[in-house]
């Protein structure tokens, strides 16, 4: 137990200390046109009523992964599912599809008041159940990644502050380290990137390796932190099934949207070490 705690303390220190030897991030590509968005439709903006927005990604027609801290307000109170909206493929007021949220579950042990501690990053995952499924023909859900290849390169699709009207794709950044269920990346993240999927390429299809929990972009070098997902997601799916007997929140269901104004979100949610 002592060795585990020592390792965890070292991991926290590593999260807080940038290294000049780490790789620099590459540029961002704005996915503006429908052709640009092709293949990334399942990534969307999670609008949180008046509490801002995060990024989320479909892993099933009616299930969206995002960061757990996104579903808490500034007083660390859980946000009602009925005010949450998932907007798949949102770009300049046009979405592929959108749906309200019926319910959600948060990884056991996550503490909204604990901030960017390594133990909290490991559990910074929420699973949203949509009020109505979004057809896979419109937005094909992503699968989780399996084993990591040596020297794994990754990519991130996210909505961020000052770029929240359309997703930005960083086509390549690096997995810098991985320890005790937490990962560090040199990917470009900012407010609003919370919950953004970190993709690893597996053959011809991108798969979700992690989610952005938080990060730091000071000093000219971006750092992002995420978590291992397979065990947490399996637990969250069980918890969501267990919660299925509860009454659904009153929230609009699936809508396909082609034209319309994009209501300004009140602010991006993000966690910084």
TrEMBL record:
Transmembrane segments: none annotated. InterPro entries: Glutamyl_endopeptidase, Peptidase_S1_PA, Peptidase_S1_PA_chymotrypsin, Peptidase_S1B, Trypsin_dom, TRYPSIN_HIS. Keywords: Hydrolase, Protease, Serine protease, Signal. Residues 24-273 form the Peptidase S1 domain. SUPFAM superfamilies: Trypsin-like serine proteases (SSF50494). Pfam families: Trypsin_2. It is an enzyme of class 3 (hydrolase). GO terms for molecular function: serine-type endopeptidase activity. Residues 1-23 form the signal peptide. PROSITE patterns: TRYPSIN_DOM, TRYPSIN_HIS. Its EC number is 3.4.21.-. PANTHER family: SERINE PROTEASE. Belongs to the peptidase S1B family. This is Serine protease. It comes from Roseovarius mucosus.
